[in-house]
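Progress narrative, work stream C.
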Amino acid sequence: MEYFYYRGQKCRHCKSVVPVFGLGHHKPKEEGDDQLTKTIINFYEYGNKREGAYLLQRLINLFKERFEGDVKFDVVCVVPTREKDGINPNMQPFAREFAGAVGVPCKQVIRRNRTIKSQHELENMDERIENVKGSIEVTEDVKGKSMLVLDNLCITGASSQEVFDALKNAGAKEVYFICFGLGSKGKESDFDINPAFKGKASDMVAKWHWPKVSTEKREEYAKAKKQV
């Protein structure tokens, strides 16, 4: 069993959690090179087959350890690229292969309805949210269905939030995300999924509240609350 990571940020419009599971953390160039980031880039941008096979096996492992026997998904799909109607050409066959391995139908039920700016070019979260606002359209009936959405990176969560909103507004029952790399900024607030821990994905979403707070800080908060 392997270490994975969980980041479940609260939805900005309701009390739901936007659950994102990742294989590790992506480092921007200014933080220096790391192997996972190189692997992601080599596959996502250049279609390197060896790197793709490595990422595929790790995603399958994550699914089997944490989702199998827990959440029954109806559809696997991919987060679109920033271009109108764009889907990364390396992610399409990857998603089909992953879906076949875990026994879930693969169908691209969301599209980008307009070209947006690159999220990496924008300086703050508000700009990123505004950039993606209203850009995701649901193209198939997802009412009552459980959706598993694949992405290469989840840096701030703005894109995941937009996809989550679009699918939930279209009637989806559950929406989960799996990405290759979570953003390294704020990674101390993410949950490490220890291989010794046997819990399933739905348990984590229900009980693990992001951002993670240390035991010491939790005790300090509890003590301060009693004194008020």
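Work stream C, second folded protein:
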Amino acid sequence: MKRLLLCCALLLCAGRSVAVIAPIEVHQIIAPVDGGGENVAALTLDACEGKFDAELIGFLISRRIPATIFATKKWLDRNPVGVAVLRSHSDLFEIEDHGANHVPPVIGVGRSVYGIPGNMDTAHLEQEVAGGARAVAMVTGEMPHWYRGATAEYDPAAIKVIETMGYRIAGFSVNADAGATLPRAAIVARLDQVKSGDIIIAHMNKPTSETAEGLSEGLRHLLARGFRFVRFDQALVRPAR
């Protein structure tokens, strides 16, 4: 009997491991604007936790480069000066939902991405998404339409939950700074490979990193190549092929 129970337990555990699907990145691009013929890209910046990268945002303001900001409640609460700067340039910066506490959109006890614990269950995921949305609405006066989860990796089941809540998943096609860990030269090299229609992901919450330097140089190169930048609310976002 004990042997039978042990076999059943092993089968159940095996069944659970098979059912767990590795999280995926959502890769997207923007459709050609006005029938094509113009180099267009979308710049998106995550504000996870941490501080406000005033150097980076100052550069974007000086060059009139718009960006879609994905901010957590944690970042919004801790950076009132940064929020004020973004809001004073609402013609450039659109603020969207990055969650309440920067919890990756994976579901299940013990699940994590890059060592960051995920959500215990669907209810916790819903609280993460809704809490971030309310925080964005508090500072902008409008509910967000887009959601980007922490780490930008998702369980397929989590994607369904988020979309059922009425939010679109915000993907990308070019990872410019790898979570604000890359040196300036590597960031510039990645931006030099940008093609028309690409969605760039980078970060604006680590001012001690080299993201501001790398993005400033790389974006200057793109401007010299004739690129124009748009926010998510100004573009048709579609899956990358």
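The helical segments are 2-19, 54-63, 73-78, 80-88, 122-140, 156-164, 184-191, 211-224. No further action is required on this item.
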